[in-house]
Amino acid sequence: MESIDKERETWRQKARETVKSFVAPRAAEIDAKGEFPLDIVDAFAQRGFLSLFIPKEYGGPDADITSYCLVVEEIATHCCASALLVVVQNVGLMPIVLGGVRN
Q1: Which of 42, 47, 81, 90 is most buried (CB neighbours < 10 A)?
Q2: What is the residue-averaged pLDDT of the chain?
Q3: What does the alpha-carbon distance between residue 71 and residue 50 come to, in Å, rounded to a whole number?
Q4: Domain at 42, CATH number
């Protein structure tokens, strides 16, 4: 198995710490209430999880697809609904970046 490079491991650690601090303590509550967790959205945005594919020259982190998968995987270990916040934002953003920014 190929080892994960330093940048990817940094993304994984950042997601792991965010989950521990923000997601895990509220996961059951989010599921029970069916609420939209704006505080978690803010935490994800501040850490770059909602703009992973935006190139650096436009203020984004320009992460690769593997880093994205690692972030989603770490979040989903505690709350799939919270992981979907990252998935939906980045899946919607990807065609904009590929079609508009990169050309």
Answers
A1: 90
A2: 91
A3: 10
A4: 1.10.540.10
